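Lab notebook, design round three. We kept the backbone fixed and only want residue identities now. Task for the bench partner: fill in a sequence for the structure below.
Input structure tokens:
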């Protein structure tokens, strides 16, 4: 019988082939896709998230775990859809205009996927107009803005203002190396995350509010 604890362990170790094999086995044994997701994949990513916060693992380990999860998700996703399992929420993310950095953004996107969010990744150097247009198209509840350069931080403020002017109710979270909580407060962001693992906690808090 497929062992979901072993699936969680495979995710923690970043063992892609085991993660895929156990997911396939669990589905073949008619296990519920939701419990494979929650007790296997998300459980594993939660451990990685907690260890990352405590500096027990670093970005490479997180990326390897996320890759293992992605491999398993490719098989699991169609089954989740069939079973009518809804994502926790929709999260749209992008690096702001003028900024081409994406490691932090990708990490946040992976951690959110690992927590059961549907993630719409707009990539890097995303214009204010694109954020507004995509937020309307996807009707997302949460939007994440990332910046790694102090020179691109003003684009965050412009994006938040444009979203509000467009009458969009989405909550906006910001993050990136030069970004601080006080800057988030100053520009009217709804949340600030210092790292990818905290981003998940804050996203869940905002949704629950």
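Proposed sequence:
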């Amino acid at each position: 019988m497929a062992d979901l604890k072993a699936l969680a362990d495979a995710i923690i170790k970043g063992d892609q082939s085991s993660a895929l094999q156990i997911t396939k086995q669990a589905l073949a044994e008619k296990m519920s896709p939701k419990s494979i997701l929650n007790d296997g994949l998300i459980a594993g990513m939660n451990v990685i998230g907690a260890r990352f916060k405590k500096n027990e693992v670093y970005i490479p380990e997180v990326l390897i775990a996320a890759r293992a999860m992605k491999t398993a998700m490719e098989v699991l996703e169609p089954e989740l859809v069939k079973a009518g399992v809804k994502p926790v929420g929709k999260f749209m993310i992008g690096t702001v205009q003028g900024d081409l950095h994406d490691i932090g953004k990708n990490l946040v996107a992976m951690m959110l996927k690992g927590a059961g969010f549907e993630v719409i990744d707009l990539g890097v150097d995303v214009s204010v107009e694109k954020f507004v247009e995509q937020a309307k198209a996807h009707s997302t509840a949460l939007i994440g803005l990332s910046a790694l350069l102090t020179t691109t931080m003003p684009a965050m403020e412009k994006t938040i203002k444009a979203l509000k002017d467009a009458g969009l109710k989405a909550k906006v979270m910001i993050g990136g190396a030069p970004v601080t909580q006080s800057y988030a407060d100053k520009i009217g962001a709804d949340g600030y995350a210092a790292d990818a693992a905290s981003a998940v906690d804050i996203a869940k808090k905002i949704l629950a509010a």
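Keep this in mind before ordering anything: The chain has two domains: 4-82, 90-208.
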